[in-house]
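Hello, quick one for you while I still have it in my head. A protein chain has come my way and I'm curious about its shape. Can you walk me through what the tokens say about the fold? No rush at all, and the record is pasted right below.
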Amino acid sequence: MSVEYKVNMTSRVFYIRLPDNSKAYLKYHIEGGKLYLDSTYTPENWRGRGLAKRLVEYALDYAVREGLKIAPICSYSVYYFIKNPDKVDMLADEYRGIDLKKYYEERLEAEKSK
């Protein structure tokens, strides 16, 4: 049985409130016609259920409605575009020609050093 999680948003976060009252979220900001996907988080006991994917897809839908291009900053958002190459046309120009796998590794390393 698949559960449909409702995505909510504020001016800086897309989030899903989970049954235990915790949240999975995607922090973002908008600047210069771009939706920057800054960081994702899913509580450990909720991982592996597609929540981060759901959040990124909601963000992409939002970007389409608002006429924004995507700037993937967090490693999960980069990973999403590696796994969904049919969506790379949504990326901001400076992200389209880069090696996404290499960029993903760079983002992972940067996140580990925080």
Q: What stands out?
A: The domain at 8-112 is CATH 3.40.630.30 (Aminopeptidase). The chain is about 35% helix and 25% strand. The chain has one domain: 8-112.
